[in-house]
Inverse folding.
């Protein structure tokens, strides 16, 4: 969702300590010491706290914080003030406040990283404790410091190496002569995700490496033929939707006859990429038909269920999808191709996102294991709010109030999912390859495309506001992509974790995630040098 970068924005020098020397000309100079102070100041304020009255306290299940948290502790009758006590072993920090639910900002900057206990006690007029208003244990986590490794190689080189890792995998080479997936690569059981990611990766190769263009097109045409031929027929309830699941592997076995509603947008964008390169209208027509099915599925309030029963077209559960994929796809079909047919659907989806989806700050995950509504805030993720914020900041005029909400989405995601560093384990080893970003509460693992997602959100905020701290955070994550990359194979692993004596298996890695990571690297390569990547990456989602 990132628009092409204006050269005027990036006319200054290189960020100190943040970029490799090949990036020198096009990026603004970043004063890391100053940005560290800015981050420390921002971390003293709670992220969209419940006491503001816009929504409930969202952090009831949270276990770690970068920003000073505020908790839903109730007032005690007869109390005139409250004593906040934070402790780490023998170390203690205290302050008083008129309310028990305000943020920990007064002492947050003094508290080091570590397991922390909080007790809030109600005091009477004499200053005596009359009750405990609340207690909480959590990790006071690492914040951004700017002290991160420079990129191991240029972003473009890193992206090309990652794309070639995908391209030369036997399961991908299989598509040159076959129109069915090689299930030796187990993630092909998710066609909309993995097969679409294959097409999109190959279309980048077609642009970047002329000698491989025809091979990339052959792979993509056959992969697209599989997606289209396995799509639902024209008279089916989910007409033209490619399958979310294929075969009988992993989650596909648990979801026979089901489809995730937003997965078809991945296939649609892949088919549009292929249409752009070939001019073959059958790909474009299939996308239009997918969008027409979305129109039929959209409720009057603008919502679309997260999961359907394929045979009947009925919702599988009562969870609604977050509609940023629809917003992005309809924006692309309008802006790039001039199609206005789906503007009403986009407007209805936008209204639902504004008035329903994020009203309670409930970032519902959009994964296949969501089978029914769960208590709010039990399964949060950055994958619902950061892409939406990125979309809005990139394509839309937003006022100051909305911009603050979008910044809250980014801060919430950093607070809960960014790992700027990690505490060594019992062996003295830092197991996680930080900095990085975990995927969700239910899968607390650093994942490559999660880092890409956050980097894209920070970049969009920087482009909208000029905030260099957001750019510095984005660069730290993108640089790390090059550092975890294997210089021999080009693989950027899906999971960023130390795994001793582990034999690499391609099915351990998601090529769909690697595509997103490589695309993100190419967009940042345009920051290094706009001439190095001279094609449009606006519609990357």
């Amino acid at each position: 969702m990132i628009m092409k970068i204006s050269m005027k924005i990036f006319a200054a020098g290189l960020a100190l300590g943040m970029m490799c020397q090949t990036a020198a000309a096009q990026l603004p100079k970043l004063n890391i010491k100053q940005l560290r102070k800015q981050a420390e100041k921002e971390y003293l304020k709670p992220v969209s706290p419940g006491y503001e009255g816009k929504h409930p306290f969202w952090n009831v299940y949270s276990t770690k914080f970068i920003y000073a948290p505020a908790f839903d502790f109730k007032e005690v009758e007869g109390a005139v003030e409250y004593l906040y006590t934070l402790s780490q072993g023998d170390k203690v920090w205290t302050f008083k406040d008129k309310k028990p639910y305000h943020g920990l900002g007064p002492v947050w900057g003094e508290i080091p990283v570590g397991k922390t206990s909080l007790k809030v006690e109600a005091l009477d007029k004499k200053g005596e404790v009359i009750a405990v208003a609340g207690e909480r244990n959590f990790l006071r986590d690492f914040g951004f410091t700017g002290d991160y490794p420079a990129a191991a190689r240029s972003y473009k080189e890193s992206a090309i190496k990652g794309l070639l890792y995908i391209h030369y995998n036997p399961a991908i080479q299989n598509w040159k002569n076959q129109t069915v997936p090689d299930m030796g690569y187990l993630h092909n059981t998710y066609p909309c995700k993995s097969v679409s990611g294959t097409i999109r990766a190959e279309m980048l190769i077609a642009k970047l490496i002329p000698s491989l263009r025809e091979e990339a097109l052959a792979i993509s045409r056959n992969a697209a033929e599989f997606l289209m031929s396995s799509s639902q027929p024209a008279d089916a309830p989910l007409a033209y939707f490619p399958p979310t699941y294929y075969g009988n592997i992993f989650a596909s076995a648990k979801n026979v006859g089901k489809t995730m509603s937003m997965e078809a947008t991945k296939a649609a964008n892949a088919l549009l990429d292929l249409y752009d390169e070939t001019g073959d209208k059958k790909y474009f027509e299939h996308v239009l038909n997918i969008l027409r099915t979305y129109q039929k599925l959209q409720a009057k309030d603008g919502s679309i269920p997260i999961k359907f029963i394929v045979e009947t077209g009925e919702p599988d559960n009562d969870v609604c999808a977050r509609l940023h994929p629809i917003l992005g796809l309809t924006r692309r079909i309008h802006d790039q191709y001039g199609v206005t047919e789906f503007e009403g659907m986009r407007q209805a989806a936008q209204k639902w996102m504004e008035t329903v989806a994020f009203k309670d700050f409930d970032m519902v995950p959009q994964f296949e294991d969501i089978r029914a509504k769960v208590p709010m805030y039990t399964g949060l993720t950055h994958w619902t709010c950061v892409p939406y914020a990125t979309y809005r900041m990139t394509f839309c005029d937003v006022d100051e109030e909305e911009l603050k909400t979008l910044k809250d989405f980014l801060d919430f995601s950093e607070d809960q999912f960014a790992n700027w560093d990690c505490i060594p384990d019992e062996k003295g080893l830092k197991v996680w390859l930080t900095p990085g970003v975990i995927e969700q509460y239910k899968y607390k693992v650093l994942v490559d495309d999660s880092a890409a997602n956050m980097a894209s959100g920070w970049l969009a905020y920087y482009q909208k506001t000029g905030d260099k701290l957001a750019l510095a955070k984005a660069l730290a994550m993108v640089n790390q992509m090059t550092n975890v990359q294997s210089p021999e194979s080009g693989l950027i692993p899906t999971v960023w974790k130390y795994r001793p004596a582990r034999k690499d298996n391609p099915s351990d890695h998601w090529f769909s995630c690697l595509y997103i990571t490589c695309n993100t690297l190419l967009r940042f390569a345009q920051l290094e040098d706009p001439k190095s990547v001279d094609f449009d990456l606006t519609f990357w989602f």
